[in-house]
Structures are given as structure tokens and as C-alpha cells.
# Entry
Amino acid sequence: MSGPVDLRSDTVTQPTEGMRAAMVAAPLGDDVFGDDPSVNALQEKIASMLGFEAALFVPTGTQSNLCGILSHCQRGDEYIVGQMQHSYRWEGGGAAVFGSVQPQPLDHQPDGTLALADIEAAIKPDDPHFARSRLLALENTLGGKLLPFAYVEQATAMAKDKGLARHLDGARLFNAAVAQAAATGGNARTEARRIAQCFDSVSVCFSKGLGAPVGSTLCGSREFIARARRVRKMAGGAMRQAGVLAAAASYALDHHIDRLADDHALARRLAQGLAGIDGLQVEAPQTNILFVDLKGAARDRSAAFLKHLAEQGVRSTGLYRLRFVTHLDVDAAGVDRAVAAIRGFFGS
Ligand SMILES: *Cc1c(COP(=O)(O)O)cnc(C)c1O
# Structure
């Protein structure tokens, strides 16, 4: 393998032969009329897998979070969210722009969690001075970090106790589940369901590590999903013969969950390969995302370093804090080439 090693994101994967065959063979209908059999099959599959009554197929994770937040919250409501969560930081402020839902962002702890005391302190009393605290939104994995399951249970139990709804941005829920299964000796599907069942709604992306070209699903109660369907329509996300995409997502659920462990192993291989290089601080990856900070003199050489990586065909994101993401379309040889390119620059 000598093409570029694209570690920018796990979104860059190409559908496999098997996935393409499933897409070609998918029976199609018109999902706006609710009669696309492949969309319906996907929605039923993910809902029953995660223990929900219903699910909704949407084009993107951004739209899935938007449908989720706007189905939980009215104008003037507030959702409590982490500063670094996608649904707050990386979605153009959609919940505020389209829904007049006010975010209440909180700082993260080093492990990615939101401190229970901070959540509790952010919940406003019923008083006309305040927005109505309505929803707690968490993300798992967050920047590749697995939220400790005991924490997820505690935070969501507290939110429920305080009358808040709970939404999970589980774009990488199955990465979390695979990492959790590795730690508990359990099964990834069981762990995914255990995490999901702490929430009233869960969004899952198929276009990340699961390797499908397009699509996410939002899961929740039947009544919640009926509201989300209306938001999806308003957002322009109601698609017609969407089964051609849903078939890829179904294929991913059948074939690409357990193999996420390979991506996690490759992220560790990359971290090990970069260990001990002067000027690089390498975070131990918990799943498929590796952050590497340039320190001291290496920081001043950032532009030259990025140019070198580009010339060597190694792609990442970031300037001083580089992000490398492993996925279906990188293998050990690719990771080793990335290590060699980086070591080559630092002369070690
Ligand atoms: C990628 C991602 C999304 C949204 O994805 P798009 O499909 O690009 O809109 C949402 N949440 C998290 C955590 C993500 O990583």
C-alpha cells in the first residue's frame, strides 16, 4: 500500500465491496410516504438493538442532534452540554439558531465528563428570570474518550431525578461500546445497549467508524420520534429512495461493529510508534482517535512539519494539536508509514 495515509477522520472511508453490493440490492420505496423497506428495516434494527421503540434515519449527525434537541426542547428552554461537544461547538449553533434553545455549556473534566456538581449547579429553578432547564446532552465517545459507565449512569440518573430529559450524541457509540466491552470482557452490542438505555434519545452516526457513506439515526420513544420526524422535514432532511443509503448503514451494523477493535489497536500502534519523540506529547488513545501536541521548539516548526507530512502523503488535522483517526481504510502498514514520516521529520 503506497497511497496517502488519510488519518484526518473516520469519515473518509469508502464503502466496501460487500457494502456496495448491499446498496445495489436494496429494495427501495419513498421514505417520505414511509414505505422504503430498507429505511424501515434499518430503523427497526437500530431501535431494537439499542432498546428503543423507534428510530429515524437522517442524512447527518448534525441533523440528528438538531432533531433530538428540538424534539426535547421548546423555544426558551435550555440544554446543558459540554464546551467541547459536537452539538454545542461544531454544529453552527443550530439548536439556538433554528430552535431558540439556549445552550448552557459546561467545562469538561480531564476525562471528558461534566462534573455532577457542575450539572446540578447549572439546573435553574422555575423562575421567570431563567431559561427552563430541560435537557442534559452528553457525548460518548468524546474526542475519542470513553465516558466511564458508572459516570454515565450517575449523571443521567441525576438529570432524570431533576426532571431533565437525556440525549446522547453517540456518533461513535459503537467505538465506546467496543472499548467498554474490552474493559468488562462483555459484548459490544450489550455494552452499546447498556449505554443507550441511560438516555431518552440517542444519535448514532454510520458515516464514521462504521464505514457507511452517509447517514445517522436518532432513537427514542414512538412519540418522540414522531416529533423528530416533523423537525427533520422542516430541516429538509426527509429523503425519498433513501434505502440505498440505509442499506449501507444496515450492512455496517451487521459487519463493522466488532472490527472497530482493529481501529483501536491501530491507534495504540500509532501512539507506541510515536512514543519518546522529543517535542511530541502523545496522549494514550482509548479508542480510534489520537491527539499529539507539539511542544517547545517543535511548536515553532509546526508549519514545516505539516508540509513534510503532506509531502509524505500522511494526512491529519490540527496545527499544534494534531488529530490522527484510524478507520476501515488504514492498516498497520499505513500506520507504520505515518510513524516513519513523523520520525523522519524529527530525526529520531
Ligand atoms: C461527526 C459527529 C457529528 C455529526 O456528524 P455529521 O454527520 O458530520 O453532521 C456529531 N457528533 C459527533 C460526536 C461527531 O463526531
Q: What stands out?
A: The radius of gyration is 21 Å. The chain has 15 helices and twelve strands. The mean pLDDT is 97.
